[in-house]
Amino acid sequence: MDINKLKQEQIKLAKKIVTRDDFSKIKTIAGCTTAYTFDRLIIAIVVMDYETFKPIESKVSVSKAKFPYMRFFLSYREAPAIIELFSGLENKPDMLMCNSNGIIHPRKIGAASQIGLSLDIPTIGVASSLYCGTVENKRVMIQDQPRGYQLLTKEHANPIYVSPGHKISRTSALKITKKCIKQSKLPEPLRAAHKIAAEKKRKVKNLIKKSNST
Question: How many CB atoms sit inside 10 A of residue 74's CB?
Fold first, then answer.
């Protein structure tokens, strides 16, 4: 594993990321999230109607993580499984919301951006933690450039960090995320995907424990 080579690849790919609106009317939006138990990687995707937020389709997969966890290289660990699961959807969404960063990244290509580029779909990054940059007037700044926003969605809850992934502007990424906030601090597509991933994680964890005890 050559980290410098991966960094150079990220720099090259980042040049292809589009941070302007490159989509028409949104009819459906999907949320994608990940969970881990032991060495298993669990991916969940939920496709929803953008107006009613009623689920249209959901899929979940379990696989072994083939790449170690390294900050700022999350796409190499999760993107292959996400892309494979996405390709199996019968109802491809107009937009994908990822539980990861977009251009809030040292090289402007977090997992949400790289997934959007690979799938050629507008993506929004929504992260629960800020690993790089500083917050100034609710804007996330990196190298004196605004990359995204800090968004407080619920009182007494920690903020989330919203940024463009691919084919969307910062303003639209924030606007769409705000519209998707309903029941919890997370946007509805991610909340629904997180629920499915958590349920699958419990089942997988119990199966592994049972297998190890026999």
Answer: 22
Query: What ranges in 64-104 are assigned the alpha helix state H?
Result: 74-87
Specify whether the CB–CB gap between 185 and 154 falls below 8 A: yes
Q: How far apart are CA 61 and CA 40, in angstroms?
A: 10
Its sign, for the CA torsion 162, 165, 171, 175, is negative
Residue entry with tokens 């601090």: 185
Q: Which two tokens stand for residue 4?
A: 């410098």
What residue spans define the domains of the chain? 11-213
What is the CB neighbour count within 10 angstroms for residue 52?
9
- For domain 11-213, the CATH architecture is 2-Layer Sandwich (3.30)
Q: What is the pLDDT of residues 156-203, one digit of tens each?
A: 899 999 999 999 999 999 999 999 999 899 999 999 999 999 999 999
For the beta carbon of residue 58, count every other beta carbon within 10 angstroms.
17
Positions of E strands within the chain:
28-37, 40-49, 55-64, 95-98, 123-127, 134-136, 139-142, 145-151, 160-166
Q: Is the pTM of this model over 0.85?
A: yes
Q: What pLDDT band is residue 142 in, cutting at 50, 70 and 90?
A: very high
